[in-house]
Design goal:
The complex is a heterodimer of chains A (about 250) and B (about 160). With about 250 residues, chain A is an alpha/beta fold. Chain A is built from ten helices and eleven strands. In chain A, α4 links the parallel β6 and β7. Chain A is globular. By secondary structure, chain B is an alpha+beta fold. Classes of the chains: A alpha/beta (about 250), B alpha+beta (about 160). The interface between A and B is medium-sized, with 23 and 27 residues.
Chain lengths: ~250, ~160
Amino acid sequence: MSYQFTVSPDFTPDHLSGWYIFNTWLQKQTDNAIHLEMYNDFHDQRAAIQQNNVDLIYANPFDAAMLVREKGFKPLVRPVGVSDEAIIAVNADNHVEDVAHLSAGTKVAVTEDPDVHMIGMIMLEPGDLDTSNVEMVPCDTYVLVAKHLLQKNADVGIFLAEAYDDLSNMIKKQLRILVRSQISVIHHSIMIGPRLLDQHENIQKTLVQMAADEKGKNVLDSLGFTEWQVVDDEEMEFMIDLMDTLTM
Amino acid sequence: MLHDMKAEDITGDFTEVVLELYGGLSRKILYTEIETPYPDGKLIVSTTDTKGHIIHVNRSFVEMSGYEENELIGAPHSILRHPEMPPAAFKDLWDTVNKGVKWQGFVKNLRKDGGYYWVKATVIPNVRNGAVVGYTSVRRKPSKTKVEECIKLYPTLF
């Protein structure tokens, strides 16, 4: 039997090859046939989940509630020290110093990355801004968010903090951060679906021990992670409840 | 256990009142007019058991409340109750979450030093295996406009 692994489409492009290497490593370690399917966007990935095609997923926290409560997934692990944080940035020429000084009609450059979008919109609330009174400028990548700010096609941009930090210094010099989130408890996780649940303990143990093995450590390096740590059911339920409060 | 506030913990001139709290508790409150601004980009998170006793707080909660974590764990959540918050707001909160529904509102919270901070709070029942086992409250930075509306409205609700 072959299983399908997929990765949240908001992965950092530099780590694409790392996920293929990880999948090969995982197949060898668990003696399972696992196909890595990289979907172009969240819409396609969610359709595959609904059709029960996905068995393992490096999931965006925004999708965790649906995976656990509707599709019977369980959490396995998360990367140590990595959490999803967002940044609200403006063009360095922009005179706005505080989100509270923004006004209705503000043009917001944003990707479809759902949790970053959500955190970003929460950080705009002190300015009385919400989806009803801003103009969204949808972008495929964070580089395009930066480009819209530089070209002044957008007033503010919502970035994944890691993606903002990875922009070139030349671009960052022309931008200015208004707010950086410090939430710490929202994170991506690897989750396991019903067809693989009988291997939950084994796969979790394999992943947690990955950093202790030289080859495993190299694979983690290719993903930009140091090691995996266990996510238990209660930790996942806590994050789902927290996300639930933030979508209101 | 909820202790009366002590003058030595308070920063600045204060007013003293006795507040009647849910469950027959009463507490001597010492409060000032000093506001601590909500920090940008942070969430204040806490979890209580079904009786409203705090079982988990995050670092932002500790920093903004002015209490040590060990003073908060086990205390009733009303340790944050500010005398200028109308009881009707908390009745609405409990009536809503007891129905298994999320509640959201703007709340003026009391600090250990007698000062205050405004939050936009969302409370959700924690449902595990079909039963409510507690409540999680997540606060974020409120808009000034909403806070100004509440400053006008809340005194009319007593």
